[in-house]
Write a structure and sequence with these properties.
Radius of gyration: 19 Å
Largest sheet: 14 strands, antiparallel
CATH class: Mainly Beta
Domain Acyl-CoA thioesterase-like N-terminal HotDog: 35-123
Number of helices: 4
InterPro entries: ACOT8-like_C, HotDog_dom_sf, TesB_ACOT8-like_N
Number of domains: 1
Domain Acyl-CoA thioesterase-like C-terminal: 143-280
CATH architecture: Beta Barrel
Helix content: 10-25%
Structural class: mainly beta
Strand content: 35-45%
Pfam families: 4HBT_3, 4HBT_3C
Number of strands: 14
CATH superfamily: Acyl-CoA thioesterase, double hotdog domain
Protein name: Thioesterase family protein
């Protein structure tokens, strides 16, 4: 029987670390705020994705990579199974070392060694490109004046969904005329809860805390007739997130064979910061 998760005001509680086989293992206890709407005893995809960001950044530091001299440009989360509400063991390692670019891998497993998530991230050493800085993306209405996304929050209510704030702002008539059947809103999300109790979130951790909900912002399929679950999440950032609000302009794409993708342009309050792709498995109920 799954034990009742703790109720601390964070998604995870750090439960210590140890070194073995040249790697650092860190243990985390999920709280009730990670709970999924999909099934009792499991976590929503967002908190483990944020935990992967934590593990990758810790792994970078463990291996001498300076997160002030460079940063992760991309993180991918591969979901190997429904993540349980039990203590998780994590580790990270560099699988492609380099002074300018390094590829790291994170693993999230239970105490028995069963893996639930693998994640990877590219760390790139920074340089001065301020004179050519640009971000390509439509201008979007910001979180100011947006209204509560009651349809989304009510549809997916759970320990995790109840811990986040989600609002929506309508796109202009001109934007809606450009693309037929597009999502009519940009959704803005944030949460006051840190990923790990007693620890300040990094920009990547803030992104990953809510970016996974992009797939659930689908406004095309009737959830009484269809299920659509993402099997992965890949996020690219051309610049770090600033502020607390993450904007998600999500578009669902479906093939004829039960496979699809959610393609999302992501924003902060200052403009576009990157993109997110999620592979989907589609099933009729």
């Amino acid at each position: 029987m799954t034990a009742t998760p703790p109720t601390d005001n964070a998604y995870f509680i750090a439960n210590g670390s140890h070194d073995a086989d040249g790697l650092t293992y860190r243990d985390y206890q999920p709280t009730k705020h990670t709970e999924s709407p999909w099934g009792e005893g499991f976590q929503h995809g967002s908190p483990p994705a944020a935990l992967v960001a934590t593990v990758l950044e810790d792994g970078a530091r463990d291996n001498g990579l300076d997160l002030n001299a460079g940063r992760f440009s991309r993180m991918t989360v591969e979901i190997l199974g429904a993540v349980p509400l039990t203590e998780l063991r994590t580790r990270a390692q560099v699988i492609r070392p380099g002074k300018r670019i390094s590829l790291l891998e994170a693993v999230v497993e239970d105490e028995s060694g069963r893996e639930y998530i693998r994640g990877t991230g590219w760390w790139i050493k920074g340089s001065d490109s301020a004179s050519i800085e640009r971000g390509v993306g439509e201008d979007m209405p910001g979180p100011e004046g947006a209204t509560s996304a009651d349809d989304f929050l009510g549809r997916w209510s759970s320990g995790y969904i109840d811990s986040i704030e989600v609002t929506r702002a309508p796109l202009s008539d001109q934007q809606l005329a450009i693309k037929k059947n597009r999502n009519r809103n940009i959704y803005w999300s944030r949460t006051d809860l840190p990923v790990v109790a007693g620890r300040e979130d990094s920009p990547w951790m803030r992104v990953m805390k809510t970016v996974d909900i992009a797939n659930g912002l689908n406004n095309i399929l009737d959830t009484d007739e269809w299920t659509y679950m993402n099997v992965d999440t890949t996020v690219y950032l051309h610049r770090p997130m600033r502020g607390e609000w993450l904007g998600l302009n999500a578009e669902a794409n479906y093939g004829a064979d039960g496979i699809g993708t959610t393609v999302t342009r992501i924003y902060d309050e200052h403009g576009p910061i990157g993109s997110c792709n999620q592979g989907l498995i589609l099933n009729r109920r």
